[in-house]
Amino acid sequence: MAPEPKMKKTREVKRLYWSISEVSSLTGVKPHVLRYWETEFPTLKPKKNSAGNRHYRERDIELILAIRQLLHKDGYTIKGARQRLTETRKVRELVDQLEIPFGRARQRQLIMEIKTGLVDLRKELDFGS
What we know:
Blueprint: H1 20-27, H2 31-40, E1 47-48, E2 54-55, H3 58-73, H4 78-87, H5 91-98, H6 105-128
Helix pairs in contact: 3-5
């Protein structure tokens, strides 16, 4: 009887950065609005690479979701949303308080990948019939 091959333990690779277009599709906020929010909310400061492209972290995405919730759903003004964000020290707590569905970037990314896969599968099935 041959010995079973050893399985390598795979760790989930945690994504560190997202581009502005990826963040836009994840959050439903257009890129020009994201750039505007950077000027209005001092805590929203994505890193930029040497070419000047923005690289958003998970914390930035959570902040964007919180801002969107405050402005579009809760009816805050920009000034009011800025004040609410400064009152709440931790963005993650605010995301939890606002009960934003799929507030975590990895969960939203996974949902987008599943959606894309399902759309591709549907196209293949429609093409095959």
